[in-house]
């Protein structure tokens, strides 16, 4: 296929992806409103007993878990990002769109009923498989089908993150644990991401930076070295998360053959984790944390005024630990969704705690954005795209800090993986593939 036609199809995939993301997001927003702004307050008022709010939350998450269990049993929802990455390498990017209806229904149910996972992974499956199917309809060869799949993945992430270049790079970095290797898909993927971003944001709106970090009075090269320190700490937090994630998988493994029971256990646990948190943070273990991060950052002064120094630090550490458990129980109980924003939340909470514990010797913005980057990179192995996405989300001037934290975390966690299907591309066209194969042999 001529390169000009590839670019044209990349635009079409992006436009289609933007529409799919808009429809998905609209249904998601409506469902969240009905469950948590209408039904949950009505249940809370109806019970008229002490602890009614907590009981109503656990009841709703349990109902959600039961529904997820039934969906897993009868619809056979496809796997998460590990399966997508495996398809990129093993099936030349081919993704089965026949699984999309079950992914669509299950993921919306999972997120609407409070699962601690976000829309990005389902959108990657839905839009990525659409690109893959288009490539097959056009009777393209494997490499171009994979490029079309990457275009769909990039469209999903570029639209949702509000960072088209970062989203496209994330789609291309996530299949590997040692850097971007399918470089031929870069420009088409960026174009698809931009097209999807335009469509999606025309419908839902765009206000620029999502997170407004506390302002720094001046810049200093010291911040870059502090970013390196945040990278080391973030790597340790990421390793702890991976350990907890794997332990919960082993704990729930005997229930995998009983999906309804598994989903129910997950729903109850997510609800119980939510009510272990003080009332003003009760939604922290729920949902995908994109907007809880805003509340967390905006509430730093309130947190300091309501708690002693070490009381605030202790609460933030509790939030981190509970969020790790919530993500793990969510994704191992049959729920479908992504963990990028939940990892950002873990990083932001950790950053605020470290800044407070050091009496802001490490400035709050440096600690927050450094650890948001480092924790996510330690898990996903995406240092370049994570840095760009976070700068887009914060609109700040701390790119050297983010880059230092990301690369440091990547180096520290290079041999520790959560996504076990991350690997080199299967052909020999990547120089990095040949170099690392020689080293490993």
List the SSEs and their pairings:
Layout: H1 3-47, H2 52-75, H3 81-90, H4 100-112, H5 120-137, H6 142-161, H7 164-173, H8 186-204, H9 222-252, H10 259-275, H11 290-298, H12 300-306, H13 309-331, H14 340-357, H15 364-380, H16 383-394, H17 399-412, H18 431-440
Helix pairs in contact: 1-2, 1-4, 1-5, 1-6, 1-8, 2-4, 2-10, 4-5, 5-6, 6-7, 6-8, 7-8, 7-16, 9-13, 9-15, 9-17, 10-13, 11-14, 13-14, 14-15, 15-16, 15-17, 16-17
Oligomer: single chain
Shape: globular
Q: H/E series, N to C?
A: HHHHHHHHHHHHHHHHHH
Termini Cα gap: 37 Å
Proportion of β residues? Answer: under 5%
> How many helices in DSSP terms?
18
- The radius of gyration over CA amounts to 21 Å
Number of strands: 0
Structural class: mainly alpha
Mean pLDDT: 91
Largest sheet: none
Q: How much helix, percentage-wise, in residues?
A: over 70%
Low-confidence stretches: 432-441
């Amino acid at each position: 296929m001529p390169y000009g036609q590839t670019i044209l199809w990349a635009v079409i995939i992006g436009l289609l992806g933007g529409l799919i993301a808009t429809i998905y997001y609209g249904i998601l927003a409506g469902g969240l409103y009905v469950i948590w702004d209408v039904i949950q307050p009505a249940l809370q008022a109806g019970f008229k007993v002490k602890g009614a709010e907590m009981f109503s939350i656990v009841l709703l998450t349990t109902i959600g878990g039961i529904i997820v269990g039934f969906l897993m049993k009868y619809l056979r929802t496809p796997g998460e990002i590990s399966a997508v990455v495996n398809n990129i390498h093993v099936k030349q990017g081919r993704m089965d769109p026949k699984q999309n209806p079950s992914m669509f229904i299950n993921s919306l149910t999972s997120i609407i009923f409070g699962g601690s996972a976000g829309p990005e992974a389902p959108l990657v499956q839905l839009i990525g498989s659409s690109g893959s199917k288009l490539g097959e309809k056009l009777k393209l060869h494997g490499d171009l089908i994979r490029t079309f799949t990457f275009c769909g993945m990039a469209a999903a992430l570029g639209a949702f993150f509000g960072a088209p270049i970062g989203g496209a790079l994330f789609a291309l970095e996530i299949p590997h644990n040692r850097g971007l290797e399918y470089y031929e898909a870069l420009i088409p993927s960026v174009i698809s991401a931009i097209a999807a971003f335009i469509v999606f944001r025309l419908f839902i709106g765009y206000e620029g930076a999502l997170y407004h970090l506390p302002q720094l009075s001046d810049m200093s090269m010291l911040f870059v070295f502090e970013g390196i320190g945040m990278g080391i700490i973030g790597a340790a937090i990421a390793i702890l998360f991976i350990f907890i994630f794997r332990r919960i998988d082993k704990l729930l493994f005997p229930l995998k053959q009983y999906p309804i029971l598994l989903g129910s256990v997950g729903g109850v646990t997510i609800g119980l984790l939510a009510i272990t948190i003080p009332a003003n943070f009760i939604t922290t273990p729920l949902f995908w944390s994109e907007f809880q991060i805003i509340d967390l950052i905006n509430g730093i002064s309130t947190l300091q005024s309501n708690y002693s120094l070490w009381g605030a630090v202790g609460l933030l550490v509790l939030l981190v630990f509970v969020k790790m458990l919530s993500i793990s129980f969510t994704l191992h109980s049959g729920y479908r969704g992504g963990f990028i924003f939940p990892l950002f939340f873990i990083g932001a909470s950790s950053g605020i705690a470290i800044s407070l514990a050091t009496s802001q010797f490490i400035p709050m913005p440096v600690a927050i954005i450094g650890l948001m980057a480092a924790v996510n990179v330690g898990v996903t192995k995406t240092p370049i795209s994570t840095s760009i996405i976070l700068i887009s989300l914060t609109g700040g001037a701390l790119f050297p800090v983010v880059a230092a934290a990301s690369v440091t975390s990547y180096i520290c966690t290079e041999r520790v993986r959560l996504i076990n299907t991350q690997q080199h591309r299967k052909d020999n066209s990547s120089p990095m593939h040949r170099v690392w194969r020689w080293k490993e042999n």
